[in-house]
Here is the input.
Amino acid sequence: MKNKDLDEILNLVRKPARYINCELNSHPADMQNDFSIVLCFADLYEIGASNLGLEILYHLINEKKLARCERAFCPDDDMGNILRQRGISLFSLESNSPLKSFDIVGFTIQSELCATNILNILDLSNIELFAKNRADGDPLIIAGGPALTNPQPLCDFFDLFVLGDGEEAIEDIICVCRKFKNKISRQALLKELSKIEGVYVPMFYQEQYNADGTLKSITADNQIKPIVKKRLLNLSNAYFPAKKIVPFIETVHNRLNIEVARGCPGRCRFCQASKYYRPWRQRPVEQLLELVRNGIAFSGYEQISFSSLSCSDYKDLDKLLIETNNLYADSKISISLPSLRCTKRSVEIAKYINKDKRPTLTFAPEAGSDRLRNVIGKYLSQDDIAQTLLSAYSMGWEVVKLYFMIGLPTETLDDLADIKNMLAIIKSQAKKMQFTITASPFVPKAQTPFQWAPMESDEKINEKIKYLNTIKNANVRAHN
Here is the structure.
């Protein structure tokens, strides 16, 4: 892509900063490196730029000089239409190089809903959609991420998948690819890559189906491992970037995001992420405090988010919050914790957050009744939830967000009625407390105990949303 052509296109699209380079702490393209990889996020820049997994791999590859590593995101419709009309291939951010010119095109897949965006990116890049049609000179198309608890629906489109943690696996993949670049056939290279722990190459596995279309078996070719186990990382000494990229435009998570732990000690029966990232692993608190100091110094962010699937279970969370507050006691820096259990322990922890004001507290009871929470493995009683919220109210919190799922297995309107009853009890004792309820339809996920449970019909889901809208003490929001 020539600069004058890019300048002309950027004048024609909304938010041109989605497609330009040189954000603070990004890496200039190392055009002297003889191996290249572009990391793609199959959604808009504002969403993908906030993805921690992509940023970890991007910095790791560039800092270790494993390859020339660049980024690409799914263009909005206006940019996509212009690229098609002008016959221009989708290009990377850092060097504006066509995606097809890279040795590896890697995707992080967070949700099944991104599948069509993946195909759109490949099509805009003039890369064959189907793996079987790609030739020796084409880039390897690889993927990782939590949506790959079941990679089978995407097998036709990818050359290989990385199952589990990607930090060490991507180093191994690049090493093998560099060793055999331009020396062996594509199929022979994929066979070498299939030997790497956590790597699944679909072309070497044969599927058999029953008469009703259900899967009967998957059999590995000779000399191919029959079972691919997910890759697991020791988080205590794992790489984490010191310098977070600061985008030119506001992103979904516009803050310094530091991962305190990976996995989850909970056993919720609907949860795909906890299954994919299991077991529960924690970063040392001293390492986290160093990341805080470097992250603030190199980015200028005024908000720190300590992230994991269950922050309140991090063993040294009190120390982490106290030390961070001590470091920045005289500044405007605030702390957020995105995932707290609805327990008194969480309220005690929350007192270290934004000490001068009381922001919104967010909890996810998931279900309305004790019975249904026991069914789904979210072991919280109605009394636990009420006492937690009343304790929060006594400490100054007046705004609470509650996340629920609707359409869960065995759910009835009686379970939803318990949401209304619980809020009424709390409101009678905490008259100024404001509630926002977000209701999300249950979607069965692969590798979870509920993977074979049916999803409820539109009619039943809409009926339940209509019922929730009758709750007078809350602002109810429902997902489509």
